[in-house]
Amino acid sequence: MAGLALRENDIGYARFLSGKVQAVAHTLKMGKYNEYSPMLDIVCAGKDVEGTYKVVKHLLDNVGTMYDFRKSSLYKHMKFRDIDEAILDGVKEKLLEGFRNEEEFGYMAGYEPWEKLIFDR
Q1: Span 71-75, mean pLDDT?
Q2: Where are the beta strands (DSSP E) in the chain?
Q3: Which of 52, 82, 98, 113 has the largest count of CB atoms under 10 Å?
Q4: Distance CA 92, CA 84 (A)
Q5: Do the beta carbons of residue 14 and residue 30 sit within 8 Å?
């Protein structure tokens, strides 16, 4: 639904919907990464430099929480395999590769905190 709102250029409504998704991710103990990820499209659509930096920093800092739901008692009836740290490292590298895409994130060029976050790793 947020994607639909963005296609209609209704960033305010998309932000509202993404906030609801964040709340659900929090309630379902999906981990900080999954709580922050719904906002990425919103800040990018608005070319919000500071917002993009904050969301991307949270995402990169919380890649390790992607599978935190496995620790929650909400899912005690389910069995999960262990996640190899190398997989999470690979996810982080793919994210960085995507964030370095000038076509999508060119509006971030020249913002020093972004440059350090994305390129100095």
Answers
A1: 87
A2: none
A3: 52
A4: 13
A5: no
